[in-house]
Design brief:
heterodimer, A: 352 residues, mainly alpha, 2 domains, two-stranded antiparallel ribbon, 6 strands, B: 258 residues, alpha/beta, Rossmann fold, six-stranded mixed β-sheet, four-stranded antiparallel β-sheet, 10 strands, globular, binds adenosine-5'-triphosphate, binds magnesium ion
């Protein structure tokens, strides 16, 4: 431990420097599109970590998680756009979005407390869809959400007079909007990681895992399972709400189309594929599942170049490879690429 | 005997499962500082009585008073908070957690750190976390499991799992520890170790309610014994007297009663 400590510190410094340089390096190496993809990956890290609290720690299978992302996004969009003519500062809106999402987490969680497994999954799936349908239809008789057209001209993040949407120069570097957002999202993602890790190693985190392992035994040991489950829903929703607000300001436009069941499933795949319950694994899952589908887009042009024509539509191939990857994972690494310590031991146990 | 000596009274407990009456007006009272044995043939209703007592089932009728306060049913976490801890006949550990973590979970009900404390790692939270770990290690040691702290609960041998359940239950600081067949599946050596452990727990001032099929163990340890048969209490008293009881002998006809 003492011998490896200095090396560990060096490793952390290198990682930190790489993360700080990342948007510039990525822009030079791969182009602007990939800086945008990196920004989105950071948002998905937040989302996946939030869902990991619900599914990974507490063991509550939630298939409607994207609803909290939607709530956060709409909360921000409504209060910082011409839609309702309000332009609140984001330092108010982000905490507000987090709180509203947490309330939704509790409201949607409360009726599901007695359900588990498949039943819980179905009901949460329904709730997720209800939120989307509501957003789609809250344009009549009074136009609140602007329905399927969505909300446009959402204010970018602005700190004092510093707008993240504008290009700034600093120390010889040019910071475009994509760079600016990268650093804000990076800070939020790192914060999410720290919060997740600290919760995991606490009395609260242990109570969640105990509920996941055996709810009745957990209750008999004095854990108020109802409150702890609601807390898991609320915490998970908070992460989603903050990520949603950031997403709305980043995109400048949102519509209910961004919050489909398939998006809930994507986030769930990030959690499961990366390693349910393991924070590092979940981060890895979020990055892989954001980056790989984008990378697969290049398969179209590649086919064109190599064979002179496109045999397989890239988007078909993406889904095909994605499905294949999931099946292979289930077969060979059911606990994810980077499983939680506990689950890893579980797997070895089953094998030996 | 002054009522202050009574820790737990159950009066007229009735519990039906559909058409089956698992408990038909059972009353027991457990004194402070004793080992109270609960025996009876398979399906007599012993575990059901435990489940009613610990809030897992709500009784259809009857009342429970623990330490002078009524215990209302179907809130297991409140029962634990009041000071009743239990183990399970079919072991229910948190299999994917380590032995140490299992016991740490038991401290939950006596500790207070919330989300903010945990996330901000406040001084109070850090101190409490250290205390939880230390107490959990002490309890593992107390139950002879110190060497198993880092093993996953589900990887432990059977006897260790049973003792880990006891350690976890003790972590809730109970005044009454209810044990559902703690010796089941144990060999003679393990049973002897268990017996010493139970005597030590009693010596530390915790009252024990013990369901056990190992007659030598339960008759040797218990100060008083109640016998259930088909959901009714057919006898109660000191072990020697109960063993001679004609009804008990009939209930156990050909059974293990020595
Ligand atoms: N949840 C339940 N639903 C329906 N019947 C039940 C339930 N729990 C127990 N029973 C029935 O109630 C009766 C008493 O069961 P209980 O488990 O209390 O017996 P026991 O005395 O603990 O027996 P054993 O010594 O075999 O553990 C049995 O007939 C059992 O089948
Ligand atoms: Mg039983």
């Amino acid at each position: 431990m003492s011998a490896s400590a200095p090396w560990r510190r060096v490793a952390w410094v290198v990682i930190a420097l790489l993360l700080l340089a990342a948007p510039f390096l990525i822009e030079i190496l791969f182009g602007r599109t990939w800086v945008r993809i990196t920004d989105v990956a950071l948002l998905f890290i937040m989302l996946a970590l939030g869902l990991n609290i619900v599914v990974g720690f507490a063991g509550l299978l939630d298939l409607g998680y994207i609803a909290f992302f939607a709530v956060g996004a709409y909360c921000y969009a409504l209060l910082a756009s011409p839609q309702l003519g309000m332009h609140w500062p984001f330092l108010v809106l982000l905490p507000l979005g987090a709180m509203v999402a947490a309330v939704f987490g509790i409201l949607l969680g409360a009726p599901t407390l007695r359900l588990r497994g498949d039943y819980l999954a179905i009901v949460t799936l329904g709730f997720g869809e209800i939120i989307r349908v509501l957003l789609n239809n809250l344009n009549r008789p009074v136009n609140i959400t602007n329905g399927p057209q969505g909300i446009t001209l959402i204010d970018p993040l602005q700190i004092g007079g510093f707008s993240l949407a504008q290009t700034h120069s600093f120390a010889g570097l040019t910071f475009t909007a994509l760079h600016n957002y990268y650093f804000v999202f990076l800070a939020c993602a790192v914060l999410s990681i720290i919060i997740s890790r600290r919760l995991e190693d606490s009395r609260i985190g242990r109570a969640w895992v105990a509920i996941r392992e055996d709810e009745l035994a957990a209750a008999s040991m004095g854990i108020n399972t109802r409150n702890m489950k609601l807390l898991a829903f609320a915490m998970g929703a908070t992460f989603g709400g903050v990520a949603g607000g950031l997403f709305a300001s980043f995109q400048g436009f949102i519509s209910p189309e961004s919050f489909h069941l398939i998006d809930s499933i994507m986030v769930l795949c990030m959690v499961v594929l990366g390693g349910m319950g393991n924070v590092a694994g979940v981060v890895l899952g979020a990055v892989l599942l954001t980056v790989l589908p984008e990378a697969l887009r290049y398969i179209g042009p590649l086919q064109q170049r190599w064979f002179g024509e496109v045999f397989i539509d890239p988007s078909d191939l993406r889904m095909l490879l994605f499905g294949l990857a999931l099946v292979l994972m289930m077969l060979f690494r059911p606990s994810g690429i980077w499983p939680a310590r506990r689950r890893k031991a579980e797997e070895n146990h089953a094998a030996g | 005997m002054p009522p202050a000596d009574i820790l737990l009274t159950a009066t007229g407990i009735i519990k039906n499962f559909g058409g089956l009456t698992a408990l038909n007006g059972v009353s027991i009272s457990v004194r402070r500082g004793e080992i109270f044995g609960l025996i009876g043939p398979n399906g007599a209703g012993k575990t059901t009585l435990f489940n009613v007592l610990t809030g897992i089932y709500a009784a259809d009728a009857g009342e429970l008073v623990f330490d002078g306060r009524p215990v209302d049913g179907s809130k297991p976490h409140l029962v634990a908070q009041h000071g009743i801890a239990r183990t399970f006949q079919n072991i229910r550990l948190f299999g994917g957690m380590t032995a140490l973590e299992n016991v740490m979970v038991g401290r939950h009900v006596r500790t207070h750190t919330g989300v903010l404390g945990a996330v901000l790692r406040t001084r109070g939270a850090a101190i409490e976390e250290r205390a939880i770990t230390q107490r959990a290690r002490e309890l593992l040691d107390y139950c002879g499991l110190a060497a198993r702290a880092g093993s996953l609960a589900r990887d432990l041998p059977y006897g260790d799992q049973r003792r880990l359940e006891i350690a976890r239950a003790l972590a809730t600081d109970p005044r009454l520890l209810a044990l559902d067949e703690p010796a089941a599946g144990m060999n003679a050596t393990e049973t002897a170790t268990l017996r010493k452990l139970l005597e030590r727990i009693l010596g530390d001032g915790i009252t024990l309610l013990l369901i056990e099929h190992d007659m030598k163990l339960v008759m040797g340890l218990s100060h008083r014994v109640a016998v259930l048969d088909y959901g009714e209490k057919i006898a109660e008293g000191e072990p020697a007297a109960v063993q001679r009881d004609a009804k008990v002998i009939t209930a156990y006809l050909g059974g293990a009663l020595v």
